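Regression test case RT-17, inverse folding.

Input:
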């Protein structure tokens, strides 16, 4: 019997740096999550990342899904405030903390705890989150906690657009959900983002990870 509170949707772009980050991502999820969860992890090498996410959401065993990149690391107890705000008409984001490899979005916090898996200072990050500020606003577009059925009802991420900035696809689906009556809120849940998918080529795009 599945007693999981939510399913982690964890797509992965394979390379040496990202593979090392994935190990830390999974370790943080295992160590720092309070509620029971299931992980769906898939390599997004043979199709667009968002097509992989759509496929994973479709087979998730719980309605509550949490989408996170493999270069994002959750802080202790992150899931508690997110689940408190979640329902099937509410999209929940956390507080994304980034080192600032590329220009920072005003919805995120800049704090450098390492820029590679090898230099990530996990203990420092986790201690900092105990007193870190929670900024106003509804939060960045990832990671996200959302309803599987709602995602499917809206048609998932639109992969018909071909090469399109990641954040634009996130925002399009979130905007579509709001038109349907969803709301988007931010929980005081801290997630560190290595910006590992933000290669020099990716940095030239409007959207990025």
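Golden output:
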């Amino acid at each position: 019997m599945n007693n999981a509170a939510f399913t982690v949707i964890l797509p992965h772009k394979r390379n040496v740096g990202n593979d090392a980050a994935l190990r830390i991502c999974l370790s943080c999820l295992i160590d720092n999550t309070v509620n029971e969860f299931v992980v769906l992890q898939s390599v997004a090498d043979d199709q667009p990342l968002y097509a992989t996410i759509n496929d994973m959401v479709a087979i998730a065993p719980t309605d509550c899904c949490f989408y996170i990149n493999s270069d994002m690391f959750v802080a202790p107890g992150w899931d508690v405030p997110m689940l408190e705000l979640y329902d099937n008409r509410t999209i929940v984001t956390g507080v994304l903390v980034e080192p600032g490899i590329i220009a920072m979005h005003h919805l995120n916090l800049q704090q450098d705890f390492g820029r590679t898996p090898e230099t990530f200072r996990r203990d420092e990050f986790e201690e900092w989150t105990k007193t870190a500020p929670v900024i106003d606003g509804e939060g960045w577009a990832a990671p996200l906690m959302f309803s599987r059925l709602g995602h499917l009802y809206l048609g998932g991420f639109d992969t018909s657009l071909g090469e399109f900035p990641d954040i634009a696809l996130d925002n399009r689906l979130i905007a579509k959900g709001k038109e349907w009556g969803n709301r988007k809120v931010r929980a005081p849940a801290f997630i560190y983002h290595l910006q590992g998918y933000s290669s020099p080529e990716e940095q030239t795009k409007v959207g990025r990870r």
